[in-house]
Amino acid sequence: xxxxxxxxxxxxxxxxxxxxxxxxxxxxxxxxxxxxxxxxxxxxxxxxxxxxxxxxxxxxxxxxxxxxxxxxxxxxxxxxxxxxxxxxxxxxxxxxxxxxxxxxxxxxxxxxxxxxxxxxxxxxxxxxxxxxxxxxxxxxxxxxxxxxxxxxxxxxxxxxxxxxxxxxxxxxxxxxxx
Length: 178
Ligand code: IMP
Ligand code: MG
Known about the structure:
This protein is about 20% helix and about 40% strand. With about 180 residues, it is of the alpha/beta class. The protein has a single domain, classed as Rossmann fold, CATH 3.40.50.2020. Helix 1 crosses helix 2. The longest helix is centred in the first third of the chain and has 18 residues, at about 15-35. The radius of gyration is 16 Å and the shape is globular. The model has no long low-confidence stretch (mean pLDDT about 95).
């Protein structure tokens, strides 16, 4: 389907499932090579990253762990600028190779706020992997190590990303229609 109506707004197809899966498979293979023998720990940021983290992790063939935290800063289609930790970390990061997984980096506020908490635990290494990045929306610089798609500063949904809670269940990613 090329256009959908959701929660009173119109969205058009942007990134189809096949393209998303292709990029994620390539990322997984890069990580499998780079992290062989390092037993990386993935930290997926809920809610938005659950599909990305799940599909990526299924293609990780080296020994690896995954855990989840819940951060939130969005209400509707704009960032509130405030980051709330709804579910915290319950794993020791000391000397671990960490890869943080985010659905999207928009202003950068969420990770900018959260990353120092991770660095405090003295991991052996800390990298950031994101499905989507909006470079034009940057307010807080975040070092991105792995990025599947760099996208324009438009609101998107689907594949885990929501508009006020809706739209996460789409296999494709849509953008707000002009
Ligand atoms: P940031 O803190 O501004 O970088 O925003 C990060 C969080 O805002 C992401 O993890 C998403 O949950 C949410 N977000 C940012 N842009 C979008 C979007 O276009 N669609 C849906 N959620 C978004
Ligand atoms: Mg998110």
